[in-house]
Batch of 4 targets.
Target 1
Amino acid sequence: MLKLSNLEVAYDESTVIRDVSLTVEPGNVVCLMGRNGVGKSTLMKTIMGVLEPRNGSISYKGEEITKKNATYRARKGLGYVPQGREIFPQLTVYENLLLGLEARSKKEEVIDEKIYEYFPVLQEMKDRRGGDLSGGQQQQLSFGRALVTEPNCLLLDEPTEGIQPNIVADIQEVIKDIKRNQQNTSILLVEQSFDFAKSVADYFYVMDKGRIVYEGEELIEEEVNRYLSV
């Protein structure tokens, strides 16, 4: 579904991502872990087309997309829930969700009822401005907006960061439901919680100082804890 090969990304002269190769198989949830500041969000922005790599390649569904812009990638089925949510605070919940439809090749103005089943608060508050929601509700809105695009590959950048436990549990169940019932959808998840990661992911990568330092189907705490603890 998604393949990164020898990716290198820099801000000006400062290299942040160094020779990163990573694969997301169809229907799998892949978790990328690591301390703050090691390059995880930079990698996600590069996959989405917000940043351009200095070297290496990105392949999505067998197509080379390294030079394609973010709009092209979104319309090809890459969905993105960025760290910090990045909703439009002056627009209503419903208007934020409608913006997600712009990324779909098939134009329509109907929000799939499944979005409201996942996050009932979005229907209850659809006329409220996004900026008036709590942090957890804004995270649900950001997640819902990405799902509106009907993505084949969903990029989730720390979706549980700083939100209350009941919403973390809701997000966990949504990921599990996508995994069970939408087998053509893959997820690349950036997460720092061992328990959350192990409950949803099929494969794990750990980053440190811009490099992949561990990968495998098992998250072995003794091996990776030194890369995660502060």
Note: The first strand starts at residue 2 and ends at 11.
Target 2
Amino acid sequence: MGKKFGYSIRRLDDCQNIADFRELAKRRLPYPVFHYIDGAADDEITKDRNTAAFEDVDLVPDVLVGADKLDPSITIMGRKSALPLMLSPTALQRLFHWQGERAVAATAEKFGLWFGISSLSSVSIEEIGAKYAGPKMLQYYYHKDRGLNAALVERAKAANFDAITLTVDTIVSGNRERCKRTGFQTPPRITPASFLSYATHPAWALNFLFREKFDLPNLSTHVAAGSNASISIQDYFNTMLDPSMDWKAAEWLRDEWGGKFCLKGVMSVGDAKRAADMGCDAIMVSNHGGRQLDGGRAPFDQLEEIVQAVGDRIEVICDGGVRRGSHVLKALATGAKAASGGRLYLYALAAAGQAGVERAIGLLDAEIRRDMQLMGVSRLDQLTPDHLRRR
């Protein structure tokens, strides 16, 4: 947005929207790290569509109804959230800023929001559970290593996590061409081609080299890829995750966990119905930020038919592409219980750590509240499809 209007985004105070945080993150990260956050699969058509889909639907406000007593809160998966916005789980966050998941968890707690950490998080399940009281989920990857699978469940139980969210769209890795071009691996492997970019971002490099050693502590007790062995995310998915994962495996995990259970990556009505039939508490309508199947539907495009099919039986979360408070309200008017996203806070984390995440969520908080008033609603359950028109 800053570039669109000719503004220069150089400081945190310059950031007025998520696009501004993206521009600042691009300035502050070595290019292989930035393109890992920013990139997606193949031609990145689906990634771009995830946000563009919201622009094809217009809001129709009501007036003279009074909207002076706002309540933007929801209850989802049994926990109250101050906003209908969830911070989706994402991996490797201490690569983007040394504060990593701690910054995101602290911000979620401050604003009273649901957040998630990945199985590939760079801060442990135990630390997040002990230090942050807000509602939290573990994004669960189903590994070939059955001992690791069982350990993740037990650690989440012991840390009092509120939900496990099984990612179901990573049977094989998407073709992440930007990562292939930049040689991105975790931990980063500096090549002759990328050396200059790392060298010209000394703040990032010094933090990475001299602060807490990078680790994936939820994995490092079981697999080398959790410690200092450098591996691409594509290779991790293709070698470590179990391509035989099926509905039976999902049912095993649901039973083993015994608590609130969500599937992330549901995109078809048939799969949504099966998730409801097996007793899932929620589904995240998601395409992994466009990082898996390019050419797939955007979550918001697919949301209406999924809500109509199962919205009275299971909580539906619209995950991906969210950049504005108005996007959140459009998802809720369509029938979603909440909206969620990862890049919306990852750009801010990379730009300025916890201060950046707090500013980004603060801006979205203000947008949601202001847009509710402009829509003429005091409560989120007053948003209906009557407030929407497709172009």
Note: The mean pLDDT is 94.
Target 3
Amino acid sequence: METCKILLAEDDVNLGKVLTTYLEAKGFSVMHANNGEVAYEMFCANTFGICLVDVMMPIQDGFTLAESIRKVDSKIPIIFLTAKSMQEDILQGLSIGDDYVTKPFSMEVLLARIQSVLRRVSNVDGDPNKPVQVGALSFDPNKQTLSKNGEVVEKLTTREVELLSMLIEKKNEIMERGYALKKIWGDDSFYNARSMDVYIAKLRHKFNEHDPSIKIINVHSIGFKLVF
């Protein structure tokens, strides 16, 4: 199996060294940059399987770096590492990346998050399903896109793809919150539940913009239902 290469953007030199040593001991290859500008140059010059990005970095902050990375590769998984735990920071991080780990964190928890994200990406990439018609939109889970009249109108994140795939599978039925959380995030903690709500809101916004007849309905205390 090919070694997964990680881009680690972390301005704390000591933490960067500790993370690099730990992750390489777990079988990953790690390239460490101590600011966003250097990290972006590394990303453009190499092929990575996942990015770990500190939010508060000099020269270029993590959110700006992630947005730049997304313009180059919309599918690359990004996990934010940060001491910032305000709700608006978490929501901004989840709107750009695939996960958000607040400092201090244990190495084991970070490893579990990395493995979880990589599993989701692998499952999506290996999905043999053809594009699915959702109202006036065509959903391609492999390309991670929504198209209308043959033209791509939205690029989706890995989690949006997984949520939408589950909603489609349960079309006109209830997708239970707990089931979705455990299958996609690994557990149904309050933090992960908030994360799922962010992605549901993002999907709703995309549907409202391109086909308002597609609805994701809240089923109180139970879950969601896709109707179109």
Note: The chain has two domains: 5-125, 132-227.
Target 4
Amino acid sequence: MNVHSFFDAQSSTFSYVVCCEKTSQCAIIDSVKNYDPASGRTDTKCADEIIKYIEDNNLNLQWILETHIHADHLSAAPYIKDKLGGRTAIGSRICEVQKIFKGLLAEDDFSTDGRQFDHQFHDGETFKIGEIEARVIHTPGHTPACITFVIEDAIFVGDTLFMPDAGTARCDFPGGDAETLYESILKILALPDDYRIFICHDYGSSSRKEVANMTTVKEEKQENIHVGANKTKDEFIKMRQERDATLDLPFLMIPSVQVNMRAGALPPQEKNGVRYIKIPIDVL
């Protein structure tokens, strides 16, 4: 198995291409489509880098995977699928997130059964990338629909865990819960110590200016500032709730959710042929 990472500086997001070297089949995890909220313009620079890598290495795209509905960047899944094929997939509890935001955004005609995605993974489900075995662990808490992909000795955790010096995901989004996140993290930390953990976001730290994207289960258990060194559930919940109360809304949350709950598709055109992002006033 080969893992290649791509970094989007605007959203501090890592995307991954996971390849079965024997069959040249591959999967993309957490792709990014760039968006400028000041102008409402999108661009595909990050997605095009991934497409070029796949084409240059003569790979065949099998899966376009999402760890959850991201609140900090748009998914490039439809754009990539149009160029390379592949099946889009996300966790089966996507329906819960869709229902939350359908109500908030008054999207009366929007279907909340997850049909926008080609496949919905259930907890414990297994699948293949070429001949590589992969399985899904349901890891809610940041959002109800978060999942983790375990692909051989590589764990793709989305926003559930960050680098050890950065801690864990916030839990104050609609449907998030600190106690649930703690239990989800324990599932990840129960995996073998030498398994590699690939994170979705890194912003550097006071002691580490350069971004990083890979750690291990052992390092997280020993050194994670939020859950390492046997911190208790009560300690974690108190810390997480107090910290979340100080955090601003993610810069791109409002456009990101509206696009990503549609599997990366933009909102439908209005009668004048223009697409719009809705902004709820005095709600979030």
Note: The first strand starts at residue 2 and ends at 8.
